């Protein structure tokens, strides 16, 4: 994957990102875990997810939320981070992507879920390990707009049973990774295999 450093201008903060262009109209923004708990765009899951999308023909953009790495600003408890996601999605649109997916991991999934009410600039939403036992989610704006949830069967922050209820309510696909916790160390390949299969199924269905 041939990524290059970019800086996103949007909202009140200049954001640091890594962008890998592709031919075609598909793009994905991948968001990272909690900024105050060591989350960055270099996280193992974020990098693996971006690579999987790239191999499936998507232009990819991963970036640091405000206050992380070389991104300006300070942590804003999800509010300003939602503006950061909008800036990232707008960047992909400006690069020519007309079909844009948002893939959020952990805190990044929570930020993404808060974005959707009244927001129409994203064509699909994927949540990886949304921490429903750690953060308060409101899925009311996500129904019909989330295609996939992925979680480990030993995740400390999102119990499988609770996620099954969420997936049923949202009418979306749920993939459970065996022997994986919230961090997927050593299980990245299985995560990417499930994600790739979902993307293939979506391609064949269109």
How would you describe what is shown here?
The protein has a single domain, classed as Alpha/Beta hydrolase fold, catalytic domain (Rossmann fold), CATH 3.40.50. 32% of the residues lie in helices and 24% in strands. The protein contains five helices and eight strands; from the N terminus they run βββαβαβαββαβα. Strands 1-2-4-3-5-6-7-8 form an eight-stranded mixed beta sheet, with helices on both faces. Helix 1 packs parallel to helix 5. The longest helix is centred in the last third of the chain and has 18 residues, at 188-205.
* Poorly predicted runs: none
Report the structural category: alpha/beta
Radius of gyration: 15 Å
Mean pLDDT figure: 95
Tally the helices: 5
Fraction of residues in helix: 25-40%
CATH topology group: Rossmann fold
Q: Which percent band covers the strand fraction?
A: 15-25%
- Reading side by side through the largest sheet, how are the strands ordered? 1-2-4-3-5-6-7-8
Task: Provide the succession of SSEs.
Answer: EEEHEHEHEEHEH
First-residue to last-residue Cα separation: 26 Å
CATH class: Alpha Beta
- The CATH architecture can be named as 3-Layer(aba) Sandwich
Kindly state the number of beta strands: 8
CATH homologous superfamily placement: Alpha/Beta hydrolase fold, catalytic domain
- Described by the principal axes of the CA atoms, the overall outline is globular
Count up the domains: 1
Largest sheet: 8 strands, mixed
